[in-house]
Write a structure and sequence with these properties.
alpha+beta, SAMD3, single chain, 248 residues
Length: 248
């Protein structure tokens, strides 16, 4: 087992990596990794032995090994389905994120850019919709203060300079390409590292989890009944696993 861990650490330092072999050795070492995490080993020790968990797609793959769910595919679907509904809610109308979005929408006409901006805004507005603490979800153009998994987002609506990163314990874990990858990484981090969910962000993450795991009755957006909108209710696959978020 030590040889596998040594190989993984050596491979992580390379610029050209053998990803097929990385996946094989991550598979072989999953039991020791899960035991470390379940025994509450410090995160820095887990990452020291298994640095590939800093790579977004290896983080997603670890989530898939635990849950049999493709978290990135799910977050793309969630934001595509819910973005317009979220942006139409009264509760977000005067939010600075929405105001920033509306100003930036005027500067672009390309449909794919407009869609991307709306999905980004919807992602960042989720805590506002559920009355949660947005600082525990994402730090937008400001310093990360939360200890639990949180996103750092810079220039969210600038197509040339937007940046997304996942932070845990106020340290950067991974840089991310866009809002769908950022949302996937945030949800995955709580599960992969078995981190309790803060109560002040629980409703938001519970909503996301209900959709990721295809439960029969996902938590609705709070004002959907009043606006006549209805949350899609995906069917439950037979034997679908679920690993509920733990609250702090």
């Amino acid at each position: 087992m030590d040889l596998h861990i040594k190989w993984l650490n050596g491979e992580y330092m390379k610029t050209q990596r053998n990803w097929e072999e990385v996946e094989n050795r991550m598979n072989v070492t999953i039991e020791i990794r899960r035991k470390m995490i379940s025994d509450k080993a410090p995160l820095k020790d887990v990452l020291r032995l298994f640095p590939f968990l800093r790579c977004p797609y290896q983080l997603f793959r670890e989530f898939q090994l635990l849950t049999h769910m493709d978290i990135h595919k799910k977050t793309v679907e969630i934001l595509e389905i819910y973005s317009e509904n979220i942006l139409s809610l009264y509760v977000v109308r005067n939010n600075p994120i929405n105001i920033m979005l509306q100003e930036n929408l005027k500067q672009h006409t390309e449909e794919d850019v407009l869609k991307y901006m709306k999905m980004t805004a919807a992602c960042l507005l989720l805590p506002e919709v559920f009355g949660d603490d947005s600082s525990l979800f994402a730090a937008v153009n400001e310093e990360v203060k939360a200890v639990t998994p949180v996103l750092e987002v810079k220039n969210p609506f600038n197509v040339n300079s937007c940046e997304f990163a996942l932070y845990i314990e106020r340290e950067e874990l991974a840089q991310l390409d866009d809002c769908t990858m950022a949302l996937a990484a945030l949800v995955a981090a709580f599960h992969v590292f078995d981190i309790p969910c803060p109560k002040r962000i629980h409703r938001t993450l519970n909503f996301l989890e209900s959709l990721v795991f295809d439960v029969r009755s996902p938590t609705s957006l709070p004002s959907m009944v009043k606006t006549g909108l209805e949350a899609p209710k995906p069917p439950v696959p037979d034997g679908a696993p679920s690993t509920p978020l733990r609250s702090m």
